[in-house]
Design goal:
By secondary structure, the protein is of the alpha/beta class. The protein has a domain of 209 residues: Rossmann fold (3-Layer(aba) Sandwich). The protein is built from 11 helices and 13 strands. A 7-stranded parallel β-sheet has the order 3-2-1-4-5-6-11, with helices on both faces. It has a two-stranded parallel sheet with strand order 7-10. A two-stranded parallel sheet has the order 8-13. Helix 1 runs parallel beside helix 2 and helix 3 runs parallel beside helix 5. The longest helix is centred in the first third of the chain and has 21 residues. The chain is globular and about 55 Å long. Bound molecules: UDP-4-deoxy-4-formamido-beta-L-arabinopyranose.
C-alpha cells in the first residue's frame, strides 16, 4: 500500500483527503501542528475509514523532525495542504502568512528532495487569478495580481514549484486551484471547524442556523450579477478530495507540472445559497445587506474541463446534496 503524506491533514480539506485516500487503498500519513484544527479529528477519521491513521503533531518548518518522518516511512507522494488560509487575517498578519506558508513549503521541498520524494500536490486557490477576467476561468487565465497576502502566498508558492519543475526534471508537480470548498463527509462526523468567527459564507450561515450568530451580513447587493450579490463556484469538499486521488492515479503522476481547477463550473449567488440552505435544511436564515467586502470580486467560477479530460474527474455532488450533508452536522 502506498504511503501518502498529507501536510495539514487534520484540517478541513486535508481530513477529507484522508478519507478519499483510504477509500482508494492508499495509506494516508498526517503531518499537522493543529494550529487551525483539533487532534480529536484523528479518532473521527479512524471511525470513518475503519483503519488506524498514523499522524505526527509537527510544524513542517521543523526540518529535523520532518526528515525523521521521511526516514521512518516510505512516501509515494505528498499532498501539501498546510498553511494559513484566512484572507482578511492575512491583511493584518502578512509577515506571518509569508513566513508560515512559504517557509513551510521550502522546508517540505528540501526534505522531499533529500529523501528522493519528487511527487507533490499543492493546495492552491482561485484567489491567484487576476480580477475582472472573462468567466469561466481556465487554468491558462492570467494570475499574479492577487489582492491580499494570502492569495500572494499561494501565487508565490506556485511560482516556486514552476521553477523547481522547470530546472529539475525529476519533480512531478500538480497545482490544485480550489474554488469554494463547502459541506462535509456524509457521515456528519467531521466538518469544517476553523477556530474563531467564520469569514467564509457557509460556515457563517451554519453559525446563524445554530443561533451562534444573530444574522448573516451579505456583503453588497448591487454587483453586476444575477441578483446583485456575489457569485461563486461552490464545490463539495468530498469531490475536491476525490480530485486529489485522481491526480495521484493519473499516469502515475508523471514528471512535469500540471495545473487543475477544482470547481463545478457553475456560479451561485449569496441569495441563491441562502435559499437552497433554507429549502434543504428547513431553517430560515435572517440576513441584512451591508457594504461590499474589500477585495471581493463580483463573480468567480471555473471551467473544470481540463480535470475532466485529463483526470476523468468531475464533481459528483450538486449544491442540494452538499446542503443535505451539512444538515447532518447541525
Ligand atoms: C463567498 C461569497 C462574499 C461571508 C475565500 C478565499 C478562497 C477560499 C474560499 C481558501 C462572497 C459573500 C461571505 C459573509 C457574505 N479560501 N459573503 N457574507 O471570498 O469567495 O473565497 O474563501 O482557500 O481562497 O478567497 O469565499 O465564503 O468568504 O465568500 O456575503 O459573511 O459570500 O462576499 O461573495 P471567497 P467566502
Amino acid at each position: 500500500m502506498k504511503n501518502i503524506f498529507i501536510t495539514g491533514g487534520a484540517g478541513y480539506i486535508g481530513s477529507h483527503c484522508v478519507i478519499s485516500l483510504a477509500k482508494n487503498n492508499y495509506n494516508p500519513i498526517i503531518i499537522d501542528n493543529f494550529s487551525n484544527s483539533n487532534e480529536s479529528v484523528i479518532k473521527k477519521l479512524e471511525i470513518i475509514t475503519k483503519k488506524k491513521i498514523i499522524y505526527y503533531n509537527l510544524d513542517i518548518k521543523n526540518k529535523k523532525k520532518l526528515k525523521s518522518i521521511f526516514k521512518k516511512h516510505s512516501c509515494y507522494a505528498v499532498i501539501h495542504c498546510a498553511g494559513y488560509k484566512d484572507v482578511s487575517e492575512s491583511c493584518e498578519k502578512s509577515i506571518n502568512y509569508f513566513d508560515n506558508n512559504i517557509g513551510s513549503t521550502l522546508s517540505l521541498l528540501d526534505c522531499m528532495r533529500e529523501r528522493n520524494v519528487f511527487k507533490i500536490i499543492f493546495s492552491s486557490s482561485a484567489n491567484v487569478y487576476n480580477h475582472g477576467q472573462s468567466l469561466p476561468l481556465k487554468e491558462t487565465a492570467n494570475v499574479g495580481k492577487t489582492k491580499n497576502p494570502y492569495g500572494n502566498s499561494k501565487y508565490i508558492i506556485e511560482r516556486i514549484l514552476m521553477d523547481l519543475s522547470n530546472f529539475d526534471k525529476k519533480w512531478s508537480v500538480r497545482i490544485a486551484r480550489y474554488f469554494n470548498p463547502i459541506s462535509n463527509h456524509s457521515s456528519g462526523i467531521i466538518r469544517e471547524n476553523s477556530k474563531g468567527i467564520p469569514s467564509n459564507l457557509l460556515p457563517y450561515i451554519i453559525s446563524v442556523a445554530k443561533k451562534k450568530l444573530p444574522e448573516l451580513r451579505i456583503y453588497g447587493k448591487n454587483y453586476k450579477t444575477k441578483d446583485g450579490t456575489g457569485v461563486r463556484d461552490y464545490i463539495h469538499v468530498m469531490d475536491l478530495a476525490d480530485g486529489h486521488v485522481a491526480m495521484i492515479k493519473n499516469n502515475r503522476m508523471k514528471k512535469g507540472l500540471e495545473v487543475y481547477n477544482f470547481g463545478t463550473g457553475k456560479g451561485l449567488s449569496v441569495l441563491e445559497m441562502v435559499k437552497v440552505f433554507e429549502k434543504q435544511i428547513g431553517i430560515s436564515i435572517p440576513f441584512k445587506f451591508v457594504k461590499k467586502r474589500k477585495g471581493d470580486v463580483p463573480a468567480s467560477y471555473c471551467s473544470p474541463k481540463k480535470a475532466l479530460k485529463e483526470l476523468k474527474w468531475k464533481n459528483k455532488f450538486d449544491i442540494n446534496q452538499a446542503m443535505k450533508d451539512i444538515k447532518k452536522i447541525l
